[in-house]
Every structure is written in C-alpha cells, then in structure tokens.
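Record passed on here:
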Amino acid sequence: MDKEAEAVAGAAIAETSRNQTAKRAARILVDRNRGFVIPTAKQRRLLLVEFARRNLVVYGNAFDVVKLSKPVDLDHAADIERNIDRIVLCEIKSTSRKLPRTSGDTSLP
C-alpha cells in the first residue's frame, strides 16, 4: 500500500471512530433524562420542514440530537410548529484527543 492509500485508509478509520464516539455521546445525553432526544428519520424531516417554514435553513446532517425544554411530540408537525421555541438542535463534535477530566466532572460514566 502506498503512502497516499495509507493516509486515506487512516482518515477513514479516524472518521469512523469519531462517528462511533459521537453516537455514544448522544446515547449518554439521552440516558441522562435531561430532555435530549435522538430523532428518527421521520422526525428529522419534520423538524427540517418546520424550521424551513420560519426561513431557518438547517442541513439534514447538521444535528445529532434535539434538546427539548418540555415534551414535544416530534412525530407530529403541528406539535413541532406550536413548540418550535422549545426545540434546540445540537450537533455533537468528538475528538480522539485525550483530555483531562475537570474536578467535579460527573457528566460521563
């Protein structure tokens, strides 16, 4: 394998690892029961449409989880429309860098 192919393969492996880390992070947020939801494909489409109706352009892959300040039925456009101000779209970023834990940090298991 030449150096260019090795570099491409290494980048692909790193990207896969970051995606897995982001998925794990999303699951941790949801499991904490603090209003985070991983939207289904249908819910994602409904969210995109409702944000677009308000001239807010959001790309489909631009968010990983949704933070709800109160319960919202993400399966129904009317409920999304009524509660759009209670919905925050969140993108999870991950890194392979090892970072020190801060004192009092209990956010991760």
